[in-house]
Amino acid sequence: MDKPTASTPPTSIANVAALLQPIFGARPELWSRFQTFYDSMWTSGQISRRVLEICRLRIASIHDCSAEWSFRTVDVFVSDVELDALRRGDFSAFDHCEQAALHVAEKFPFQHDDIADAEVQAIEAGYGSAAAVALLTAVAFFDVRCRWHLVMSSNVPN
After folding, report:
1. Does the first or last residue of the chain, that is N or C, have fewer Cβ atoms within 10 Å of its Cβ?
2. Of the candidates 112, 114, 133, the residue with the CA atom closest to the CA atom of residue 124
3. Contact, 144 vs 59, CB < 8 A?
4. pTM of the model
């Protein structure tokens, strides 16, 4: 399995791409555009790769999505204690800026209407406005990728 690096974001991992690519079977150019856009979130530098990774992992945990949970961005350190905390939804092990990002990520899958302006402002205060937009976009993509994984990997009875 390919390991992601600073220039190779998590989507380049062959098994992840192989599972999601069939969604775009009739429009392969859309897969290429999706992949390019998703990869750019990891390489643009607007929000740290660590913040992206912990939010991605929290959303994977919320969805119980083993496909997203099972790989890590190798150049991003997340300790075993932090991984356990992400599984439990306990953000106390993270700094206040990371907590702000995780609180929004926590709500995005099933409570997105409950995300308050103050929560987005906390992200802006910690990372800046452009980073807040980048993070909100990334969180939406993490959520949809988990949903796609769950649909594509389901064993639906005939």
Report:
1. C
2. 133
3. no
4. 0.83
